[in-house]
Amino acid sequence: MGGHGHGEPYKVPHASAYKVEAVPQLVEVKEALARQGLKDPWLRNEVWRYEPKAFGTHKSRLNTFLFRGLGVGFCAFLVTIGVEYALGIGKGQGGHGHGHDEGHDDKGHH
Questions:
Q1: Cα end-to-end span (Å), the chain
Q2: 8: burial class by Cβ within 10 Å (0-12, 13-18, 19+)?
Q3: Residue 33: per-residue pLDDT
Q4: What is the C-alpha separation between 106 and 110, in angstroms, rounded?
Q5: Rounded distance, CA 72 to CA 19, Å?
Q6: How far is CA 99 from CA 77, 82, 96, 106, in A?
Q7: In this model, does residue 100 exceed pLDDT 70?
Q8: How far is the C-alpha of 29 from the C-alpha of 8, rounded, in Å?
Q9: pLDDT at position 34
Q10: Is 24 in contact with 47 (CB distance < 8 Å)?
Q11: Contact at 8 Å (CB) between 39 and 15?
Q12: Which of 25, 34, 47, 66 could form a disulfide linkage to 18, CB 3.0–4.6 angstroms apart?
């Protein structure tokens, strides 16, 4: 299903590829549980989260989160400014956003 002659879309790594001992944070959790006489058989499933190649570092994930759309957003900003300038939008509005001053007097204004 969904192969279309291209082979497997991904390769699932064998469970033995993930070792808790390779991640100091998880070793600490394992030891803390052992001191209380507990064991987490699923701890191995968290190892992938600590692999920088697969999931990135905290800093790289934060940078991605904060700056993901910055380039596109800045380009859109520049295009908007260019279009407004080319069409003359925003010029001569008196600075208070009403557009035209026709039919307005100072009595009762604001």
A1: 68
A2: exposed
A3: 95
A4: 9
A5: 40
A6: 23, 20, 8, 16
A7: no
A8: 35
A9: 95
A10: no
A11: no
A12: 47
pLDDT for 55: 77
97/52: higher pLDDT: 52
Residue written as tokens 């204004």? 109
pTM for this entry: 0.47
Query: Across all residues in the chain, what is the average pLDDT?
Result: 81
Give burial (CB, 10 Å; 0-12/13-18/19+) of 40: middle
User: Using H for helix, E for strand and C for coil, what is the string for 16-80?
Assistant: HHCCHHHCHHHHHHHHHHHHCCCCCCCHHHHHHHHCHHHHCCHHHHHHHHHHCCHHHHHHHHHHH
Residue 1, token pair as written in the block? 């299903």
Q: What is the CA radius of gyration of the chain?
A: 30
